[in-house]
Input
Amino acid sequence: MFLCRGSVIALADVRANNMNPLFIEGARSPLFGVHHPSDSISGQALLFLPPFAEENNRSRHVAAALARDCARRGIQVFLLDPYGTGDSGGDFGEADWQTWLEDGRKAVTWLRKRGGSRLTLAGLRSGGLLATRLASELDLPPERLVLWSPVTNGGRFLQQFLRLRVAARITGGSDGGENIDDLLVQLSGGESLEIGGYVLNPDMAHQLAENKLEAMTPPTGTGVLWLETGGETSDGLKPGSTRIANHWRAAGLDVTSETVAGPSYWLRQEPEPCPALVESTMRWLTQGEPGNA
Amino acid sequence: MRANEINKNLKHLIGEVLQLGTRADALEADTALLGNLPELDSMAVATLIASMEEFFDIFIEDDEISAETFETFGSLCSFVEDQLSR
Output
């Protein structure tokens, strides 16, 4: 067994699924990731950028399911643990958004060197925000961008994270305690905050808050798949997401969007599979490939 | 978004966040939430607020929300209607 800080990868699983846990060079330290190789010569590769803090731990199984399906269909996948997350070097409290962007660039380089000439960037939740930003900044744009329930507003997302710490106050549990504004003041004063077991440093908070999907436009040639989960399958997305997707379409981007029936798996303490999400993603990724509809 | 859509979407969000399953379908305007649903602890409230912000694309400030907001399903629906009407 590989027994690491945050994850346990059974050797039997490794052999059965042909997954390679390994370290690559990151911006500030070696980064852990799981590579799902493919023996296809198509050059297709997918880099998956994970969500923030505890959401990463809760959603790993869904990313792994995507990776297995992709590898079976000729797309090699790298599931990256950015700096300070998972089994990568560094502490979460020392991580920041700029480092994670640079880690993404390093992972892209690593995949391209391994025959990944046709790159898909994929991200879940804040990983989707990171993937979009990375897609917009790469010298060589990715062929495709897959967004799973992306965080659209980094500032709002930061407030939601801070709210976890003052949760009791909302329902009157602790009168007169700190509120979100107090926490923001502490951050702007250079203080790191402990939130639900994670240390949030001011640089991470500040940089995260600066990122909004509506201020980013992926490169025009990059095909986009935007998927969300909900009570039932539909053509639509959440209202705010629809607005941004349409804005990108108006800018000339090819955006496919859909809500699939499934749980908010990144919130669940117990792993809950989301097969419709993976199926829908695979359909889009393999459309137009030989042997597919 | 019309009131009945807000109603339907909020039921789904509450059901999702609290993992109520089909119990969420039974929520009515006068169904008590805070203090009545054991799943609705302070962490669940924070998560529900975040889900509401994400779904309805709104920003909920500290001082706009209190225990009263979560008193009943009806009070929560009214809150969202109010937020969306701005």
Notes: The mean pLDDT of chain A is 92.
